[in-house]
Amino acid sequence: MTDRAAAADPARLLREVFGFAAFRPGQEEIVRAVIAGRDTLAIMPTGGGKSLCFQLPALCRPGLTVVVSPLIALMRDQVRGLQAAGVAAAALTSANTEAETAQAMEALGSRRLRLLYVAPERLASGGTERLLRQAGTTLIAVDEAHCVSQWGHDFRPDYLRIGALRAALGVPLAAFTATADAETRAEIVARLFPDAPPETFLRGFDRPNIHLAFAAKDNPRRQILALADRRRGRSGIVYCATRAKTETLATALAAEGHAGVAYHAGMEPDERRRVETRFQAEDGIIVVATVAFGMGIDKPDVRWVAHADLPKSIEAYWQEVGRAGRDGAAAEAITLFGPDDIRLRRTQIDESPAPPERKAADHGRLNALLGLAEATGCRRQVLLGYFGEEAEPCGTCDICDRPAVVFDATEAVRKALSAVLRTGESFGVGHLIDILTGQATDKVRARGHDRLPTFAVGADLPKSVWAGVFRQMMGRDLIRPDPERQGGLRMTEAARPILRGEATITLRRDGLAAPARPEARALVAEDDAPLLAALKARRRAIADAQGVPAYIIFTDRTLIEMAERRPRTLDEMAQITGVGAKKLESFGAAFLQVVTGATAEPVHPVRMRLAGRGEGALYDRLAGIARDLARGDDGTGKPLDLGARVIARIIEARPATPEALGRIAGMDAARLERFGAEILRALAEDDA
């Protein structure tokens, strides 16, 4: 990518380099603000196209754009994708080979790079500022900007150096994050933009291609294995709360014939890198991970994400499920949860070293997630409502698929609260259910709880229903585990109006017992499935030959569109989303052969650059004129030709007179006499 391209229109570069016909909602405003050199903070959902909002401006601005990114895997992945699209990009990381570092430094020295990715730790090096100044840095982009938040679990101390680097270089700064809460946004502004607030964009948080579902835990290992079995051959991520669980579940998946691997922070760095490499390179692999596997993954064709345990907050949930379907094709998010998850998350908050106000805020975030988990209406409406957006019922969540059955649970909740209070707020769910259902266990009798007024008052409901009632009460924050009483449940202030008869409550009767959409959604119609499989096989072969992940060639979304639209020519292939000019030149003919079953005729590079554009048809017409008149009107004249580059100059300049045509195209009198009139007629008709 040359400096000449830096002056190009962003919409044209979007098409020619990245292969997208249009911006996603919200992208264009951000891109134009960054191109204009305004300090920018953009909050967008994971998978919502944040990277494009600094990659495209880097090609439209002069000089070098430096991207500060937190994880090596993410940087290497994005650099490979950019290079495959024909963009001069590099990364300076501790994982570089000597040759890679030497190439990056040479490109920096000659000012050929458009984007340079660096880890925040690199900013601690004394020579970094001088290096970036000499390389002609004109913009700093900060990916995952929430890493600057000292209370966030992704905090990176070296992110605090970014503000000083920006001030020293005197360049604009664009920060991007998927974390939406106001507290984190305020901290980002304070630390990265201390002098003046940036232009802030809070973009829509919907990811309509992701189907949302929750399910109560009922043998979670079996549930996860069933989910994976129905999605066999599709890449997925399973998040777990503990390191031990990732290893146990990965072993179980492998025993069932899946490509399942564990990933957590306790593994050796080399082992983690091997997992990252496998996940990026292989189709159908399932990584069972803690949140350590979060930010470093930019694999666009993850088709499903499952939580084997409840996430920490609604922001964490949305960021983690956002790893699915980043290519825009259909994906799924399934979350399993139960009372033990709620108890664990409450305890983690209460036992953290955070100040009381922070703990209260964290409980509020957890409450929001539990409200989503226990929703009785469209989940997407609940989720987007948390982010301040209104939405119609989505039709792509488990509740829209099958509406929840609800009942007036006021009396049942009052009975449960009475049992909690009469036992001194010192016991867990199992013991309380035994009391309510009249089970005179040894523990119940030993404490005299079989003589309480609440003993057996709930015998009309089975234990399974009471388990659902208690789980939903915990989800509504009516009761909480008390860490000072070994996790015994205590009543919160939110429950008092119900206990006093001042409020009613509705709960789900089904208790989320039904499986959460076990059947995987088809990526294409049945008639298109064989072609999609053939396109994937061709992609795999090319990727293996080049030693890159398959999605670097084309994403699932691109192959799905090929299978559905079935392009017959390179011009039609160029209209497929994700097929930019460089990829069309490199791979277009190979994939067109799969679609048509025939080997494509060789195309001149000049014509290839016009593929998919209106000028392509004009080129073909002018080339036809040159061919038809090569020997004159009667076919007996001296052979004359124009040449591909001459035709390209004519198309670009659009001359209107014979004199202008001769001057622009460098045509001598003989060629002008033979071809001029027909060429000018074709140009006039094309402009009409």
Structural overview:
46% of the residues lie in helices and 11% in strands. With 688 residues, the protein is of the alpha/beta class. The protein has 5 domains: 3-202, 3-Layer(aba) Sandwich (Rossmann fold); 210-401, Rossmann fold; 406-508, Winged helix-like DNA-binding domain superfamily/Winged helix DNA-binding domain (Arc Repressor Mutant, subunit A, Orthogonal Bundle), CATH 1.10.10.10; 526-599, DNA polymerase, domain 1, CATH 1.10.150; 614-687. It has a 7-stranded parallel sheet with strand order 3-4-2-5-6-1-7, sandwiched between helices. The protein has a 6-stranded parallel sheet with strand order 8-13-12-9-11-10, sandwiched between helices. The protein has a two-stranded antiparallel ribbon with strand order 14-17. It is elongated and about 115 Å long.
Question: Uncertain runs with pLDDT below 50, 5 residues or more?
Answer: 1-7, 511-517
Counted by DSSP, the helix tally is 32
Estimate the global geometry from the Cα principal axes: elongated
CATH class of the largest domain, named Alpha Beta
Q: Which percent range describes the beta-strand content?
A: 5-15%
Give the mean pLDDT. 87
CATH architecture of the largest domain: 3-Layer(aba) Sandwich
The overall number of domains is: 5
Main attributes of the structure:
688 residues, Rossmann fold, Arc Repressor Mutant, subunit A, seven-stranded parallel sheet, disordered N terminus
